[in-house]
């Protein structure tokens, strides 16, 4: 099985830009920069060292 095939973690923060900048600076693999989605959510996505997808939503 490929790394990260089955797992995803969804987190939320009040400061998406700050959280994203800290994770990017620490060397996290960026999948999607902070984006306003058409369905009303602002989020970003990264992968952890094991390849698992981590999505972070911004609380409003």
UniProtKB/TrEMBL annotation:
UniProt keyword annotations, A-Z: Lyase
Domain VOC, first and last residues per copy: 1-59
Keyword Iron-sulfur annotated: no
Superkingdom of the source species: Bacteria
One Pfam family this sequence matches: Glyoxalase
GO molecular function: lyase activity
Key word Lyase present: yes
Protein name: Putative lyase
Organism this protein belongs to: uncultured Nocardioidaceae bacterium
């Amino acid at each position: 099985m490929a790394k990260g095939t089955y797992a995803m973690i969804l987190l939320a923060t009040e400061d998406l830009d700050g959280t994203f900048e800290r994770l990017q600076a620490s060397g996290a693999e960026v999948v999607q920069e902070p984006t306003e989605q058409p369905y009303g959510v602002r989020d970003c996505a990264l992968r952890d060292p094991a390849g698992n997808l981590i999505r972070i939503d911004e609380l409003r």
